[in-house]
Write a structure and sequence with these properties.
Layout: H1 3-31, H2 35-48, E1 55-56, H3 58-68, H4 83-92, E2 100-101, H5 102-114, H6 120-130, H7 139-146, H8 148-157, E3 159-160, E4 166-167, H9 168-175
Antiparallel strand pairs: 1-2, 3-4
């Protein structure tokens, strides 16, 4: 392989990695999963990646999901089919290689966290709690409730409230419209 070809491949890999990071950040911002929670997800992944391969094999994944209480995965005899786990694996590992990368694991966990929100009413209640039940929320209150990066995202997209701070109700109505 020539130097130019190697350089091109390296550049393509860099572009792909950047796209994956951008997708993850967009998903995180849209999902409301905190930076702290993302670190916990990464730490759990690393803890169960016993062979340090950068991916979880089937046994590592089952152990991880049981420990996290994600699902009550039944214990089956070796060689026996486990339809419940197979359905979950199809969701977590869409490429079907029976190895779950950190990216796939994060996406699954973010999706799982995001699905906890039932409606826009739940989101308004969460903002109201952060704001101390006021109709407006300050940057400091947002930062305390959700971390700096997400608070900055909200502030960039929220309108100013007439009483100061930011109008979270309008923001939620626009996002969930």
């Amino acid at each position: 392989m020539g130097l130019a070809q190697g350089y091109d491949q390296l550049m393509q890999l860099g572009i792909q990695m950047k796209q994956q990071v951008d997708q993850l950040l967009q998903a995180k911002n849209a999902s409301g999963v905190s930076e702290e929670r993302l670190r916990e997800i990464d730490k759990a992944f690393a803890s169960f990646d016993k062979d340090r391969s950068g991916s979880l094999d089937i046994l590592e994944l089952k152990t991880c999901l049981r420990a996290l209480g994600v699902l009550s995965i039944s214990v089956v005899e070796e060689g026996q089919a486990d339809p419940e786990f197979k359905a979950l694996l199809n969701q977590i590992d869409p490429d079907g290689d029976d190895l779950v990368s950190l990216h796939e694991f994060r996406r699954f966990m973010i999706d799982r966290e995001s699905n906890k929100v039932e409606s826009s009413t739940d989101v308004v209640r969460a903002f109201a709690a952060a704001a101390g039940d006021k109709p407006n929320v300050t940057l400091a209150e947002l930062q305390k409730a959700m971390g700096g990066e997400q608070a900055d995202f909200c502030v960039r997209h929220m309108r100013k409230h007439p009483k100061g701070g930011y109008d979270y109700r309008t923001f939620v109505n626009e996002v969930f419209a």
